[in-house]
Amino acid sequence: MKITGVMIPKEEIREICQRLGKEITQDYQGKEIVLICVLKGATVFLADLMREIDVPCEIDFMSVSSYTGTKSSGDVKIIKDLDDTIENRHVILVEDIIDSGLTLSHLLDILLRRNPASLKICTCFDKPERRKTEVKVDYIGRQIPDEFIVGYGLDYNGRYRNLPDICTLEISGQEDIDE
Ligand code: IMP
Ligand code: MG
To answer: Ligand 1: which of 1, 4, 96, 166 to mutate, judged by most atoms within 8 Å of the beta carbon?
Structure first.
């Protein structure tokens, strides 16, 4: 596999974070929020987004597994749960990318059962063409076409998360070990 080009340069990602941070700041005036980061892909986005938010906020992390290659299996397992309770808290779930939406809808079920005061979703990237289940996403950084991307926290089998830009990757059929 090889990197074939830059789809979204870091300057544009910076603008996305600034815009989303401003929207969240306006929407949560007078409130305190908990940002839940879905490991590992959303860590880079969380780090940038939280610095654009100007209301009191805490962060917590959750790890679920649903992917081994490039295709969603739809199988979601909690690997690491939140450290703290979210009961009566205003929660924003921070995602790197929403693809089929299966990971997210499963996570939403789990989190809603814990009775947060409110629960919204913020994703940096969205691939609407690939959706397999309907999910209401409150904050979307940018919609992208149905292409596999890496960089800015997003990986292919654990690699490329450190690239500062969103890049496209050429993957040959045999390397896609998930299907
Ligand atoms: P979903 O359950 O299909 O929506 O999968 C969401 C998760 O799959 C994301 O949090 C990513 O970890 C991963 N993912 C989906 N599309 C891509 C991609 O293009 N590049 C890297 N990871 C992806
Ligand atoms: Mg991933």
So the answer is: 96
Give the domain CATH number at 84.
3.40.50.2020
Q: Does a structural domain hold residue 159?
A: no
Strand 90-98 vs strand 139-143: parallel, antiparallel, or unpaired?
Answer: unpaired
Q: Total domain count for the chain?
A: 1
Q: How many CA atoms lie within 13 A of 80 on its CB side?
A: 11
Paired tokens of 28: 């949560």
Could you list the pLDDT tens digit for every one of the 179 residues in the chain?
A: 799 999 999 999 999 999 999 999 999 999 999 999 999 999 999 999 999 999 999 999 999 876 555 555 556 788 999 999 999 999 999 999 999 998 889 899 999 999 999 999 999 999 999 899 999 999 999 999 999 999 999 999 999 999 999 999 987 765 554 43
Residue 4 in any domain: the answer is no
Evaluate whether residue 151 is within a structural domain.
no
Structure tokens at 17: 């974070």
Within 8 A by CB and 6+ apart from 158, the residues are none
Ligand 1 closest atom vs CA 103? 2
Please check whether residue 174 lies inside any domain of the structure.
no
- Ligand 1 pocket at CB < 6 A: 41, 66-67, 72, 95-104, 148-150, 154-155
Q: For residue 68, give its domain range.
A: 10-146
Say whether 99 is catalytic: yes
pTM above 0.85, yes or no: yes
